[in-house]
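Support request, please re-run this one:
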Amino acid sequence: MVDSSLCGLFDCEGCRIREKGLCLGCGRGNAYLEQWGRETCRIYACTRSHNLSGCSECAEDVCALRGATDVVCPLRSGAEKKRHWAWRIAQHLEAKGKPCRRAGTLPHKTLARLRWYFGVLKSFEEHGIDVVSSRELGDRVGSGSAMVRKDLSLLGDTGTPGLGYNVRYLQGRIQDVFDRSVCQLIWVGAQWLESAAGVLAAQTGVNFRIVAAVDSRPEWIGQRVGQWQVQPLSELPALFAGGVHGAVMALPEDSGRATEALVAAGAKGILNLTPYTLRVPPDVTVRHLDLLGEIMALAVECAGPDEPGSEAGSP
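Re-run finished. Output below.
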């Protein structure tokens, strides 16, 4: 426990929450909440993003958060927030041995949009822009400002009403989400990897790592594709024993056998780029991305019935 709060405005010695043994200390308690993917104190999030141990080390002259501690501190902003903060810590400690929910439980679509926000924020920073509005972010990624605010609110309060979002701070908050759940993946299918290697190498700050490439075709085994040496399917058990979590399936010629090998090795999730259905047990997640089907659907939408080549209206 600590004897003073991060902001230095409260004396924790006389805190009733602490006296009841429900508070693990300002910094320590926030660290637990962050680890579980819970909402932390906004002052804690701010000091952590600037690598500070508390507000006393901050060189900024003006701080909107420090002057509103009754709002930003979960312990001092009402009973609901107290349950969100102190009681959930207590409940977790009472339920030791039960599995925690893994951090990073944001909706899938929100996580997908965070990648685009991150790229846009990086561009703003490179152009010397320090503050951006939800409307500007939405315009750049093709989303409404309301959707942007909703997505970012799931990260905790990251903006100032009427002013917008600090570009570098928001980048850090999004990067924190990615860093909490970094996943190691295997790419299955060297031929498709050869086409995707450049795109994968250009991505930085994302929450996955392609750590190996495998294939079942003899002509590809041993070949070097990008930074990866292609290995046979027989190496999958050793790769998963080394900390791999899932795979990208890009081997339509042998997707069935490759999927069986992945499941047997311990894969928990597969992104399927092939046009075939993968048969997996209920505890294995499969996401399907049909590139050819999406292009076909786009072609139908682009070419109306009156376009050249259409037989509509012909006898």
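The two ends are 84 Å apart (CA to CA). The chain has a mean pLDDT of 75.
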